[in-house]
Amino acid sequence: MNLKYSIKSYLNLFTHTAFGMSLPIWIKLLARNKFAIDLRFLPKIIFISGNIILNIPFQIYEYLCYNKKIKNTKVQRPVFIIGHPRSGTTYLQYVLSKDPQFSFCSTYEALIPHTFLSMGNFTKRILSMAMPDTRPQDNVKAGVDKPKEEEFALANMCDASLVHGFYFPKNITSIFDESVTFETADKKLSLSWQNHFAYFIKKISYKYKGKRVLLKSPANTGRIKEILEVYPDACFIHIHRDPYAVYQSNVKLYEKILPLLGFQIAKNQAIEDYIYYSYEKMYKKYLLDKQSIPGKQLIELGYTDFVSNPIDQLKKVYEYLDLGDFNKAMPYLNEEIKSVKDYQKNSYVKLDAKAENSITEKWAFFFDAYGYSKRI
Known about the structure:
By secondary structure, the protein is α/β, with parallel strands linked by helices. The protein has 17 helices and five strands. The longest helix is centred in the first third of the chain and has 30 residues, at 42-71. Mean pLDDT is 91; it is low at 4-11.
């Protein structure tokens, strides 16, 4: 694993995901992490802080104009795509989001959750000039209107978000325990997450005139219980992938995103240990909590099955979860599927014996649960 930090890291200043944060959450975030910022990232902190301060009047304006309307919005049976990072959740959301019945959280809405109703068009123009055409960790299409994890919006709205661990990677394990499994969080923090989560979904639903909300966040795989407490009728689509491939892909993910988003330099071994730890913790909680999901509200897909025959797999999803007329949606879904037929997947260095053995041992429960072959 090789985390590279250089002057090029500052090219992302205009698209850093903390730009849309509220000032109280920004101050709390820095304080909770004891302002432990590596000196080379101080210009980034100053730049982001200045932008957050400049956004205060616009955030207040939007709150005063829309808060009552948002709170009175009714949300119809949302759909949540879940699964560990690098398991195919993005591709699944990109395809499903083409169905006109769905609304979703776009990139610019995730980055400016406090102001996208009033400042969205202006921000889109700025971001479209600064954003790359593909994501830094792979060749997946990027863009201001593309679907984005609502986790980034929640990171700018409340104290509990895994994204905060990207900013302070030395503390990513404790942030995970507090904001994903809520294992070390007090009731006040988990309730705050639920309230902000519900408010953001209402805001998306309000903007898109009550269209059914489709969201994707890998972190929500560890929050089934908390989501059901807010939306007992929610539907879940879980996509899973061979654990060895997931590990390799996550190593590459953190190599790419931590230099872009982080305010600290984390040791390679610490991040690798976090990948082992968080996978085990999140999936053990998921396997326990999924038992409480009511019938016909959860369907599970294998990544290989989905990418090899997406239309057949999606037809099963629509029928099982009662998502509406699949034949009506199919032309839209097919359009997205065809657009990525030449997509080039990442290539990875072969796993060394130590990593392979660690995955086999630490994640044995997942191999057993989903029938993946162990390398013994």
